[in-house]
Amino acid sequence: MATTADFKNGMCLDIDGQYFFIVEFLHVKPGKGPAFVRTKLKNVQTGRVLDKTWNSGVKVNEVRIERRPYQYSYKDDMGYHFLHTETWEEVIIAGESIEGVQFLKDGDICEAMVHAESETILTCEMPTSVTLEITYTEPGIKGDTATNTLTPATVETGAEVRVPLFCNIGDKVVIDTRDGSYKERVKE
Q1: pTM for the complete prediction?
Q2: Residues facing 40 on adjacent strands
Q3: CA 166/CA 179 separation, integer angstroms
Q4: Radius of gyration over alpha carbons of the chain, in Å?
Q5: Per-residue b/e over 122-137, b at no fewer than 16 CB within 10 Å?
């Protein structure tokens, strides 16, 4: 058990059977009345952010969450198969638990958040950016780099992203996995 005095960013709490990370918190001491703590909490499963106010000194259930590296192996009808990079233990993670799953390719290292007591995987995070090869795009016009016009392109994982006109089939591009946006073209 922890109290509101123990709050810190990144701490995980169990509230009504759901797990929340503290995104930010603020201790408030008004001129009149008791002190309280204002927090922003992010739901681990849904990613939804909510605001919650606590009276100062309230006891809360702290949950121990561990971050573990896993390497992606393959996908089948059961889910996405990963190997722990140190113990080589295989785990299966559902696609909806992986952020940016459409950019996942063989050998990628992801970081899973695991509930320490029950050993259940809550979510899995991809790296913030990945380098992927373009497998299909409409051919661009040479020298057309003055405008910020984007064209749809299919990358090696099958995901569709929007890239500048000067990107061609076979080019490697860096994609932001959080929103699927183009960052840069990799120079070879």
Answers
A1: 0.73
A2: 24, 51
A3: 21
A4: 22
A5: bbbbbeebbebebeeb
Distance separating alpha carbons of residues 88 and 108, to the nearest angstrom: 15
Is 49:40 a contact under the CB 8 Å cutoff?
A: yes
What digits encode the pLDDT tens for the residues 108-159?
899 988 888 888 888 888 889 999 999 998 876 666 666 678 889 999 999 9
* Burial of 1 per CB tally in 10 Å (0-12, 13-18, 19+): exposed
Residues with Cβ within 8 Å of 129's Cβ and at least 6 positions away in sequence, in order, are 174, 175, 176, 177, 183
Please list, in sequence order, all residues whose beta carbon lies within 8 angstroms of the beta carbon of residue 44, skipping any fewer than 6 positions away: 12, 18, 19, 20, 21, 65, 113, 122, 123
Spans of the chain, pLDDT less than 70: 140-147
Measured from the Cβ of residue 39, the count of other Cβ atoms closer than 10 Å reads 21
For 145, the enclosing helix (H) or strand (E) is none
DSSP string, 84-117: ETTT--EEEE-GGGEETGGG--TT-EEEEEEETT
18 by DSSP, 3-state: which? strand
137 φ, ψ (degrees, to nearest 5)? -160, 155
